[in-house]
Design brief:
The structure is a single chain. The protein has a 7-stranded parallel β-sheet with strand order 3-4-2-5-6-1-7. The protein has a 7-stranded parallel β-sheet with strand order 10-11-9-12-13-8-14, with helices on both faces. The protein folds into 3 domains: 205 residues, P-loop containing nucleotide triphosphate hydrolases (Rossmann fold); 145 residues, P-loop containing nucleotide triphosphate hydrolases (Rossmann fold), CATH 3.40.50; 83 residues, Alpha-Beta Plaits (2-Layer Sandwich), CATH 3.30.70. The mean pLDDT is 93. It is 35% helix and 18% strand. It contains 17 helices and 18 strands. Strand 12, helix 13 and strand 13 form a beta-alpha-beta unit. Helix 3 crosses helix 4. Bound molecules: adenosine-5'-diphosphate and magnesium ion. Adenosine-5'-diphosphate binds next to helix 3.
Length: 474
């Protein structure tokens, strides 16, 4: 696979594009670019899969820019799942066209329709958009897809899933003069590849072997933590960030994004929430200030999971685990871009256990379960306090296991149970299984009484010694 190094100059790209590539500081193509660009330049249909942050935009952008000419009618269309991504893709293509003079127009919802229509009516060569608004503009007669030669899907698996498929198909069917189709993503589930065949007859697949997803240099960890202490754990991770680090925190609902950014604010941690219910202008301003490094923590829904290229993101946190395994790959792929290093943390509650196992086995990842990072030197207090979360440490019968520092030789089980019952004045039923080792004993206590029992045990002495109760994780 690793062919000899290819230079952009060996391709004899159109002059404007060659000099734009150079002006961008791109010294050589990335692997996906090296493989996909020559195929796409021959006019072939290409399905390109490559890890997050590996330059897929350039891989479809360069051949598209070469094929189009400044004549004011749409010749290529790129569809993206989010408005922010459409903006970003259009910007990248704009910077890659140099002085070629193509009109690259974005078409996406949440913005002034009239203005967008006016720009389209003035002439567009390349359209980058989200499906809903593209359909709208086409139906209103502001966008003529009849002259489209090149049809491209970024985040193609997302574009072909149930949510977008009908819209994408509609647009596709409005392009009878289409000559070439390009599809790119970091993930391509088999059913999506099957669906993709509806769009292409003989496509060339550029993929990593076995369609196995490569994960960039991202250190991944899971923290076993209950709902009640996710905020505490997040505080710990934030503590470890350097001054220039940036963090993207994913939560599963818009409401939770709001609550979370607000709560962080109460702890004097500045974070801004990003989700689909915010006005479009605001969404774009947030992304812009994140890209410029003015915002260091953004809390978002999956609206930020795909495609966004913010090279300063050093930390991704799954405050909630995503429901599907693909999302995990895309979310953590917001860090570790273009070979940089990144950290991804996932909070895993007890119910999440099967889900994280599914994620790691699907992608063949090892995601070690670790504790929350310790407080760094010089910080002596948690930015966000830890709370008792007995539910997380109790078993299905509501029992919490305590480890006590007495062994078989110090006491019988019965003696110990009677002592606890008497000291704490709790009914026998509150005390469950007891198991003893040579120098420690594990005692189950019902969750409703456990806090109290711990306090009592700590305060009293058993045969003249302190029992130092510790909670054993369920
Ligand atoms: P992907 O779509 O694969 O996630 P992007 O297309 O967003 O990745 O590219 C990631 C970053 O790498 C962008 O900032 C892009 O400008 C940059 N990039 C792309 N190709 C090259 C290259 N050949 N050399 C250097 N930087 C590149
Ligand atoms: Mg991309």
């Amino acid at each position: 696979m690793n062919a000899a190094r290819v230079d952009f100059s060996s391709w004899d790209l159109q002059e404007h594009i060659a000099s734009a590539v150079q002006a961008n500081g791109w010294s050589e193509p990335t692997e996906i670019q090296r493989e996909a660009i020559p195929l796409a330049r021959q006019g072939l249909d290409v399905v390109g899969q490559a890890r997050t942050g590996s330059g897929k935009t350039g891989a479809f952008g360069i051949p598209i820019l070469e094929r189009c000419s400044p004549k004011g009618t749409p010749q290529a269309i790129v569809l993206c799942p989010t408005r922010e991504l459409a903006v970003q893709v259009a910007e990248e293509m704009e910077s890659l066209q140099g002085g070629k003079g193509l009109s690259i127009q974005t078409v996406y919802g949440g913005t002034d329709l009239e203005k967008q229509a006016k720009r389209l009516n003035q002439g567009a060569d390349i359209v980058v958009g989200t499906p809903g608004r593209v359909i709208d503009m086409t139906k209103r007669g502001h966008l003529d897809l009849g002259g489209i030669n090149l049809f491209c899907l970024d985040e193609a698996d997302r574009m072909l899933d149930m949510g977008f498929f009908p819209d994408v198909l509609w647009i596709f069917e409005q392009t009878p003069n289409r000559e070439q189709t390009l599809m790119f993503s970091a993930t391509f589930p088999q059913e999506v590849l099957d669906a993709a065949d509806e769009f292409m007859s003989e496509s060339v697949h550029v993929m990593s072997e076995d369609m196995e997803v490569e994960i960039p240099e991202i250190e991944q960890f899971a923290i076993h933590v209950g709902r009640a202490n996710k905020l505490w754990a997040l505080g710990r991770i934030i503590c470890t960030m350097g001054d220039d680090d940036q963090m993207l925190v994913f939560s599963n609902t818009k409401r939770m994004v709001e609550i979370l950014s607000e709560r962080l604010g109460k702890f004097r941690i500045s974070a801004i929430g990003l989700h689909g219910d915010l006005p479009q202008g605001k969404r774009e301003r947030i992304i812009e200030s994140f890209k410029e490094g003015r915002e260091s923590i953004v809390v978002a829904t999956d609206v930020a999971a795909r495609g966004l290229d913010v090279d300063g993101i050093t930390h991704v946190v799954n405050y909630d685990l995503p429901d599907d395994t693909e999302s995990y790959v895309h979310r953590i792929g917001r860090t570790g871009r273009m070979g940089r290093k990144g950290h991804a943390w996932s909070f895993v509650t007890r119910e999440d256990q099967p889900l994280i196992e599914k994620i790691s086995s699907t992608w063949n990842l090892s995601i070690p379960v670790v504790g929350a990072p310790p407080l760094p030197d010089g910080v002596d207090r948690d930015p966000i306090g830890r709370r008792d979360d007995w539910d997380e440490v109790s078993d299905a019968f509501g029992m919490v296991t305590l480890r006590l520092s007495v062994g078989k030789s110090d006491s019988s089980k019965l003696e110990l149970a009677e002592w606890i019952a008497k000291q704490a004045r709790v009914a026998d039923i509150v005390i469950g299984e007891i198991s003893q080792g040579d120098d420690e004993t594990e005692v189950e206590i019902h969750v409703e009484k456990v806090a109290y029992v711990i306090d009592v045990i700590k305060a009293r002495e058993f045969n003249g010694r302190s029992l130092t109760p510790e909670i054993v994780d369920a």
